[in-house]
Design a protein that fits this description.
- This is Multisubunit sodium/proton antiporter, MrpA subunit /multisubunit sodium/proton antiporter, MrpB subunit.
- The protein is mainly alpha-helical.
- Among the domains are: 280-436 and 445-531, no CATH class; 535-579; 598-671; 729-769 and 789-938, no CATH class.
- It is 71% helix and 3% strand.
- It is built from 38 helices and four strands.
- The strands form two sheets. A two-stranded antiparallel sheet has the order 1-2. A two-stranded antiparallel sheet has the order 3-4.
- The longest helix is centred in the C-terminal third of the chain and has 37 residues, at 902-938.
């Protein structure tokens, strides 16, 4: 199972390249990945039927109880088949749906495949934290898929709306997940065996998790995001909003039903919101002329139906819920695929503009009609089997666990929703395929032309819909291991015929009433139009977001006045009044050792003197130089304290920062502005002096108190031994970064990449400048010197060309020797960054481009990919994430070589630092040069 997930994400990683190489045919290759997962899941049918669970458990963060645990049971098997099967067909469908020259294929292929992998991970996860991570991944990927066309405001608005609503639910779910995990267990199978203790905390946690499930599955009052998401391409709707993403909430409810069914509030919330959603969705579907929106509201209605069954919580209701999940995924995917074909073939989805497609596209019409009949609950389709089973379960629930009144109210609600379902199913078939004409004369059919290959997915799924209706008994056996975990009597098996039962009678009533409602659609539409909307959830959301934006503007105007001293003053005051005061109360009784040697004291006095001179300086460059001296003094203190690796890194960082300061100062006046003294200015000066002094004292006190607060032996004392035993290196600092604390480093380099992106966005405001730094640098023509002759220095240029290659060699030496000697990927990357900086100082931006004819984004991305792959590589050999190993071999002439695999992670760090340095030099150096030239030319 782990390999199947990795295969999805690996395919997503290479998908953009495949799309560039194969164009639309890349979808055919990518479809093989979910198809392989589908085949593997089918092969496990025997184990699932026998009630045996397949489990994989990989230690992730054992100290926090975080294991990457996967489990395949009945529920996971069913959802996994839908996710992979419909996913493979959706990718197949995409190969003929998109235009060959669609410029966004490279992005869409990767995100769609990654979503399929995240959805499969969500279904298989047996750890609540892992499930939550996959849950949020589906949210992020769906945001990108819905916003597929960022040029259209509808896509952007709908994607943001879906993201905000589902993220809100996800945050509530995270809180509930943590509460459950800390009071019981994070492992779902363990909770099934031993549920959390009853109490207010468990109730709160269960309802918070339920909020996440309800938002994901578009239940009232969160239902409005799903119709808005129809701005996405049709394959996205067919997959996300029929077979996968919207089923995630239903899956979570069904998964936790055996655990929380009796928690106060669980069942009432599901029943009330489910019935409300079912009826509201059906009501709104009958008002739509866009057949895709009609299906969207129909999906909302059907999700409400499933929620009601999950809320009943008996064995019969559980069986019906699984049957409905299966049937809905099949028929709704077909219908969305059909809408995509109609839209592509005619250019419209307006049912008032569609005429006679049943004659021009008979195969499509047959497949869609079968699926619509299944949605309406007509025999002999699987939708009929599921609906009759659902009605039977709810009728029985009136005798327990629901009260008689509640049970029969639920029955009335389901029948009402079913009447609406039949009506909008008939409306869909009539609107999409019927020949319309008031006079009886058949108008000419709507022109239609679409690739025949698009029919593969809907035809296969509609045949499955038809065949599944005859396999009620096998499906009952397959679903039995799940249903037996629920309370209540064992249900009747799924079948087309149970005799003359109340459920059959109610089904007939729903079908007849729904057809009559469709026949009387014109007067019913007038009734709908006459009735006022009491509450519009989407309008409430929009008003709330508008009020929130306005509140943010007001707060920003109040707190962000544009004064940097004000911002710093506020931060300093908070530090002084909160942690500073608390630390001051703990200061008595602390011990302070000022220095170990007089040389440390001398360096400390030097740093203090440089800091005072930096404050007193009137020239900006002079002050920056003194600030740099404080950094070099700190490096000297590191060296005197026995930390040459830290000293080396501090010197390199300080040197790079110092030069960048100088580059920025070119755009500022040479001297600080002198203002005539006055009483008010003197008071402000004294206030700033007092604030700065108090802040310095607070930081000093915090440092002393923190150093004295330790009550346990520091774990770092074991680092030297651990660095050599399992890190296989003698440089403790570097081994800590790439092995012992590699998770921290992975997070930090991700932040570095984000920071580089921010720098490019802030400095390169002009589009051409962004492309200059972050796109491929080719076809530049001959590179000429960009510095004016009067600014060039022959000595500097000659020295630079002599030193440049030496610095490159030094950076590589630091990279490869850093595991045992001072250095490492970070220090090596800084040296190479300084080398590029020297080339820029000597010859300007043209010289920099000649030295590094590559985009900063490419280097940053390559570094992050190398680091991530080296972190995941041990999994392929049975190890854990970021586990390192040592390989020893002999090379002729060279001799014995000892290679530690953590070096590859260090190479990723090395590339990221180089990319960051290149981006910073291009932005603060070359970018500022270009903007200055353009401003001068304009002036």
């Amino acid at each position: 199972m782990t390999l199947l997930l990795l295969a999805h994400f690996a395919a997503a990683a290479v998908a953009p390249g495949l799309a560039k190489l194969l164009n639309r045919r890349a979808f055919l290759v990518l479809a093989l990945v979910p198809a392989a997962a589908f085949a593997w899941l089918l092969a496990q049918t025997g184990d699932v039927t026998a009630g045996r669970s397949i489990v994989e458990d990989i230690a992730w963060v054992p100290s926090l109880g975080m294991d990457f645990a996967l489990r395949l049971g009945t529920l996971q098997w069913l959802l996994g088949l839908l996710v992979t099967g419909v996913g493979a067909l959706a990718l197949l469908y995409c190969a003929w749906y998109f235009k060959p020259d669609d410029p966004s294929l490279w992005r869409f292929t990767g995100v769609f495949t990654a979503f399929a992998g995240a959805m499969l991970g969500l279904v298989l996860a047996d750890n609540l934290l892992a499930l939550y991570i996959f849950w949020e991944l589906t949210t992020v990927f769906s945001y990108t898929l819905i916003g597929h066309n960022p040029v259209r405001s509808a896509n952007r608005r709908s994607a943001t709306q879906a993201l905000l609503v589902t993220t809100f639910g996800g945050l509530a779910m995270l809180i509930g997940t943590v509460i459950i995990g800390e009071t019981s267990s994070y492992t779902i199978s363990e909770m099934l065996a031993s549920p959390p203790p009853a109490g207010a905390l468990t109730t709160t946690a269960a309802l918070l998790v339920l909020v996440g499930a309800l938002t994901k599955s578009a239940q009232v009052p969160f239902h409005f995001w799903l119709p808005g998401a129809m701005a996405a391409p049709t394959p996205v709707s067919a997959y996300l909003h029929a077979a996968s993403m919207v089923k995630a909430g239903i899956y979570l409810i069904l998964l936790l039903e055996p655990i929380f069914a009796d928690v106060p509030g669980w069942r009432p919330v599901l029943l009330v919101l489910g019935l409300w959603t079912m009826i509201l969705g059906g009501w709104r579907a009958l008002r739509q002329d866009d057949i895709k929106l009609l299906l969207a509201y129909g999906t909302v209605s059907q999700l409400g139906f499933m929620t009601v069954l999950a809320g009943v919580g008996t064995q019969a209701a559980g069986l019906a819920a699984l049957a409905l999940v299966l049937s809905h995924a099949l028929f709704k995917s077909v219908l969305f695929f059909s809408v995509g074909i109609i839209d592509k073939g005619t250019g419209t989805r307006d049912l008032t503009q569609l005429h006679g497609l049943g004659r021009t596209a008979p195969v499509l019409a047959t497949a869609a009609t079968l699926s619509a009949a299944s949605m309406a609950g007509l025999p002999p389709l699987v939708g009929f089997v599921a609906k009759e089973s659902a009605l039977t379960a709810v009728i029985e629930s009136a005798h327990g666990p629901l009260s008689t009144t509640t049970g029969w109210l639920a029955v009335v609600g389901l029948v009402t929703g079913s009447v609406l379902t039949v009506a909008y199913s008939a409306r869909f078939v009539w609107g999409a395929f019927a020949t319309k004409g008031a006079t009886g004369a058949a108008p000419s059919p709507t022109p239609f032309a679409a690739p025949h290959a698009l029919l593969i997915a809907p035809v296969l799924l509609s045949l499955t819909t038809l065949a599944s209706g005859f396999f009620g008994d096998p499906l009952t056996k397959l679903f039995h291991p799940y249903t037996e975990t629920l309370p209540g009597a064992e249900p009747e098996h799924l079948a087309l015929w149970h005799g003359l039962t109340p459920a059959l009678g109610l089904t007939v009533v729903a079908i007849v009433a729904g057809l009559l409602l469709f026949v009387g659609r014109a007067p019913f539409a007038r009734v709908q139009a006459a009735l006022p909307e009491v509450v519009n959830a989407e309008r409430v959301y929009q008003r709330f977001m508008k009020a929130l934006d306005r509140f943010a503007v007001e707060v920003t105007a109040l707190a962000q006045g544009g004064s940097l001293p004000t911002y710093l003053g506020a931060i300093f005051l908070v530090v002084i009044l909160l942690p500073g005061v608390v630390a001051a109360t703990a200061l008595p009784g602390t011990e302070v050792r000022l220095w170990d040697t007089f040389s440390q004291a001398a360096v400390g006095l030097f740093v203090i003197a440089a800091a005072i001179l930096a404050v007193r300086g009137r020239n900006r460059l002079q002050s920056v130089m003194f600030v740099g001296l404080t950094g070099y003094g700190l490096a000297l203190l590191f060296h005197l304290h026995g930390a040459p690796d830290l000293a080396l890194t501090q010197v390199l960082v300080e040197t790079f920062s110092l030069v960048l300061f100088v580059l920025v100062l070119r755009m500022l006046p040479q001297d600080f502005r002198r203002r005539p003294r006055s009483g008010r200015r003197s008071r402000r000066r004294l206030w700033r002096l007092a604030l700065a002094g108090t802040m310095g004292a607070a930081i000093s006190i915090l440092t002393v108190v923190a150093a004295n607060a330790r009550i346990h032996e520091p774990i770092s004392k074991a680092f030297p031994e651990q660095a050599y035993d399992f890190g296989h290196g003698q440089n403790v600092v570097n081994v800590t970064l790439v092995d012992i604390r590699a998770w921290d480093t992975l997070g930090e380099i991700s932040v570095l990449v984000a920071a580089a992106t921010g720098i490019a966005s802030l400095v390169f405001v002009r589009t051409q400048d962004v492309e200059r730094s972050w796109t491929r640098r080719r076809n530049q023509g001959p590179v000429t010197a960009s510095l004016p002759r009067e600014r060039r220095s022959v000595i500097l240029e000659t020295a630079t060309r002599l030193v440049f290659h030496v610095m490159i060699a030094l950076s590589l030496y630091l990279l490869f020797s850093g595991h045992n000697q001072p250095g490492g990927g970070f220090a090596g990357g800084l040296v190479l960054g300084l080398a590029l900086l020297v080339r820029y100082l000597a010859g300007g931006r043209a010289e920099l481009d000649r030295a590094a004819p590559v985009s900063a984004g490419l280097v940053l991305g390559a570094g992050l990919v190398v680091a991530a792959l080296s972190a995941l590589a041990p999994l392929a050999f049975g190890g854990t994430v970021l586990q390192s190993a040592v390989v020893q071999f002999d090379v002729p002439v060279w001799g014995h070589v000892k290679l530690v695999t953590a070096m590859f992670f260090d190479i990723g760090v090395y590339l990221i630092v180089i990319g960051l340095a290149l981006d910073v030099v291009r932005s603060l150096g070359a970018g500022v040069d270009k903007q200055a030239e353009e401003d001068g030319a304009t002036a």
